[in-house]
Write a structure and sequence with these properties.
It is a single chain. The chain has 82 residues and is an all-alpha fold. It has one domain: Up-down Bundle (Methane Monooxygenase Hydroxylase, Chain G, domain 1). The longest helix has 32 residues. The radius of gyration is 17 Å and the shape is elongated.
């Protein structure tokens, strides 16, 4: 535990951020699995893509990672339709 008062606040704030980011990351994984499955609808894919964009905008994941995930979902969807 830090001795400096400001450092105590920093650790408290960073823990809140960590938990919030962890929840969003978990949600992203769930949406990706749902959108990548065989019975996925276009609404599932749209929701997943939107969630990836929002997470990238908030800085939870990197912008390139969000684009890569969306691209792979689209590729999987295209192969599932064929």
């Amino acid at each position: 535990m830090p001795n400096i008062k400001a450092a105590i606040k920093w650790t408290r704030a960073s823990e809140k951020r960590r938990q919030r980011n962890q929840a969003v990351t978990s949600k992203l994984k769930t949406l990706a699995k749902k959108a990548g499955g065989t019975g996925a609808t276009d609404a599932d894919r749209t929701a997943a893509g939107s969630a990836f964009d929002k997470a990238a905008a908030r800085g939870i994941i990197h912008k390139n990672k969000a684009n890569r995930k969306k691209s792979r979902l689209a590729k999987r969807a295209k192969s599932a339709k064929a």
